[in-house]
């Protein structure tokens, strides 16, 4: 079955309520390809490797979390950017990208999807009353050591996380996928035992140690693989389309 590209885009934007979210990049259709869609390929970042894989998979739409045209970037279409755009346009593949709307969505969002993978029960936002905070807080069914929870993260995400182990058992968890290490202060204020995100900064270690909480950096890419898969599955079910998630490994 095929549907109009415009129908797919409209539904994705409606479902994610993307127009209401102020972001660092344009959300929605970033590059327009063929007008009919039969197959969606999804992935985390619209890298050349993912584009090449989408071409080989005969995708009509490439659906990603990290697309193009970020605020402050050089607008010139040269080098790496030219090669990526040329490949998509030459193969008539549309690029559909959602950044913050895919982080915060209550059903297919990166944060709720990661919680489901790790067995965390979502309780609410990391910082109540702040609409720009994308992280969440929740709890584990049973208390465990930081090392035990880090082992669970390793098993699920398939990579060794960076762990700063605090003194207490882990029951209450705060998290924000991707580059959310800057929210560790909000996590401390929320009274969590452990804060988990994708990346770490030099000062993150000191914040965790001096506030006596545990911290895990599990990888930007690794923590954000699940939202785009869930969105692709939703759109495929909604319109009876084919959907294939392609993971291009990234150690960061």
UniProtKB/TrEMBL annotation:
A divalent metal cation binds at residues 65-66, 103, 220, 224. InterPro entries: DUF34/NIF3, DUF34/NIF3_sf. Keywords: Metal-binding. One of its GO terms (molecular function) is metal ion binding. It comes from the Bacteria. One of its GO terms (cellular component) is cytoplasm. Transmembrane segments: none annotated. The keyword Metal-binding applies. Gene3D superfamilies: NIF3 (NGG1p interacting factor 3)-like (3.40.1390.30). PANTHER family: GTP CYCLOHYDROLASE 1 TYPE 2 HOMOLOG, NGG1 INTERACTING FACTOR 3. Belongs to the GTP cyclohydrolase I type 2/NIF3 family. This is GTP cyclohydrolase 1 type 2 homolog. It comes from Pseudomonas marincola.
């Amino acid at each position: 079955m095929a549907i109009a590209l415009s129908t797919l885009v409209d539904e994705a934007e409606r479902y994610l309520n993307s127009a209401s979210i102020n972001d660092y990049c344009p959300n929605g259709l970033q590059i327009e390809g063929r007008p009919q869609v039969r197959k969606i390929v999804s992935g985390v970042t619209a890298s050349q490797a993912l584009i090449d894989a989408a071409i080989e998979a005969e995708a009509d739409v490439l659906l990603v979390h990290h697309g193009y045209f970020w605020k402050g970037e050089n607008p010139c279409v040269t080098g790496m950017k030219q090669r990526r755009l040329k490949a998509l346009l030459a193969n008539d593949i549309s690029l559909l990208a959602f950044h913050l709307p895919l982080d915060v969505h209550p059903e297919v969002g990166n944060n709720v999807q990661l919680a489901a993978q790790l067995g965390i029960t979502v309780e609410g936002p990391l910082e109540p009353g702040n609409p720009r905070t994308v992280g969440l807080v929740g709890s584990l069914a049973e208390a465990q050591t930081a090392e035990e929870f880090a082992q669970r993260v390793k098993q699920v995400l398939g990579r060794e996380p960076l762990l700063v182990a605090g003194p207490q058992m882990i029951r209450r968890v705060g998290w924000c996928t991707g580059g959310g290490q800057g929210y560790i202060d909000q996590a401390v204020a929320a009274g969590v035992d452990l804060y988990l995100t994708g990346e770490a900064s030099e000062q993150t270690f000191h914040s965790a140690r001096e506030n006596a909480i545990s911290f895990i950096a599990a990888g930007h890419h690794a923590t954000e693989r699940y939202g785009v898969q869930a969105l692709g599955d939703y759109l495929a079910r909604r319109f009876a389309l084919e959907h294939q998630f392609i993971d291009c490994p990234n150690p960061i």
